[in-house]
Known about the structure:
Helices cover 72% and strands 0% of the residues. By secondary structure, the chain is mainly α.
Amino acid sequence: MTDFKSGASMRPFVLLLAYLSLMILTDAVAAGSIEDTEASLERGNDPTEVLVLNALAQFNLGMMYETGEGVPRDYAAAAKWYRQAADQGLPQAEQRLGNLLLNGRGVSQDYAEAVRWLSKAAAQGYGVAQFDMGFLAFKGYGMPQDLVQAHVYFSMAAEQSVPHAAVMRDFVARRMTPVQIEQERELAKEKLN
């Protein structure tokens, strides 16, 4: 018997419902025509809201496939949905796609492409991507090793309270020369302006 008060057996149903809702929303928006957009404008709706909802739905589908929540885990499908949302500029999707590329999950491992997507998300102020870029700069993955860049990225992520960002910023700072510290100050000023 189902215990609806505890919600114990409701989880699969809720996940299925969320998945189907996202599929319907994504299919409806993706299948939308120019006429649909014009009709939306005539009704006073903002078409950019439709695009945002579409990107969020695509991102959520990517998360479901990456984690296996409600669907079988499928990194290739996750990458497909993340790419669609990332192409619309959603920083969370850019970051997740960058991580799949970095680790070769569902896609061919490609450090340069990972850096491209992660840097886009970081430039939009997404703290997790800033942390990732700090790590890549520190290790020299997909880009030349650069303690100055690593420190700047970790500092930006720490300002957003990203876990471990302040620890990594301080760790990098202890390895920097006085010249690198001055370079970092100048670079940080540029990024703030």
